[in-house]
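User: Sequence in, structure out. Go.
Assistant: Echoing your sequence, followed by the C-alpha cells.
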Amino acid sequence: MRWKFSWPKLAVAAPGESEGNDQPDHWQRHVETLRQASIPEPGAAVQGRRPATVADEQALYDVAPSFVELLPWVEFLPKSKSMLLEDGQSVAAFFELVPLGTEGREPGWLAHARDALENALQDSFDELDENPWVLQLYAQDEPSFDQYMQTLRNYVQPRARGTDFTEFYLRFFGHHLRAVAKPGGLFEDTVVTRLRWRGQTRRVRMVVYRRSTGQATRRGQTPEQLLGIVCDRLCGGLANAGIQARRLGAADVHDWLLRWFNPNPALLGPGARTGSASMRSRVTPRRARTARSNWQAGGISASGCSSDRRAPMSRKGPGISTECRTAS
C-alpha cells in the first residue's frame, strides 16, 4: 500500500513574474518553525522506506522466547501426587514440613535432634553412582497467614465450631494477622531496633526427585513406585525426628511456584506478595555424619550458603545430595 501525501509544494516562478516577491508562504514558515525546534519536515521519516509486507505484519505477532521453556516440569500426576519432569520418565514429590522448634533448648537436646535428622537422611536413600536421589529444602518467610488460619480453624473442637464466640475470635484474629502482615509493617520501632515491626510466617518445603533417564524401570518398579517407597521411608524418619511432613497437591505446588516466579502478581490482588531472596547449600550423605546443620526456631540455617535463585530440580550433580534454600 502506498500513501499519497497532498502536501503543497512551491510552484516554480515563471521568468516573467516579479522577482521581488521573496516572502515565504505558510508552508515554508511552518517547516522553518519545525526546523528551529529540531523537528524534521513532515514526511521525511517515511521517504525512501519500502511499504510494509505481509511478513512484516506477521513478525509483529511472533512470541518471544520465554524462560518457561527451560523449566523441568511437564504436568502434575494426581494419582501418585508427583510431578512429571521433562524427560517423560522422572518424577518428583513435593512436601511441606513443620520445622522442629529449637529455641531455648539445651545443647544435648540439639545434638540428639541433629543425629535423628542425619539418620533420617542416611537411611532413606540408596546411594547410586548414576542418577542419584536429590533432596531440596526451601525455607521462605511469607507475609500470608492463610495456612495458619486454616490450621487454627481445624484446631477448634467440634463442640465449639460455628458458635458466635468462635466465629468472632477467628474473624478478630484474622484481622490482627492481616494488620501485622501489611506492607510497611504494623509500626516502626524508633527506640531499640529502628526497624519496621511486621509479622511473617516461616514455611519450609521439600522436593524429592531422581533422574531416571535411560531406564524406565529399576528392580521391576516404575519411577513413581520407587519415589513412593523413598518418600515413605523419608517421612517416617522425619517423624521419628519430630518433623511433620505433608504431601503437597497440584493446587499447593501451583500456588508456591506462581509466587516464586512472580512475587507480586497483580491478578491475585494487592496483598499477594512474598519474599524472593534465596540461598543454597549442598552436602553429600557420605559426609552427613560430620555435617553440622543447626535447626533453628522455625527454619534451617547452614554455613557456607551462597546466594542463588534456582527453582526446584534446576541443577544436577554427582552423588546423592541434599540442598537447602531459605528466603527472607
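User: And one key feature?
Assistant: Residues 274-309, 315-328 have pLDDT under 50 and may be disordered.
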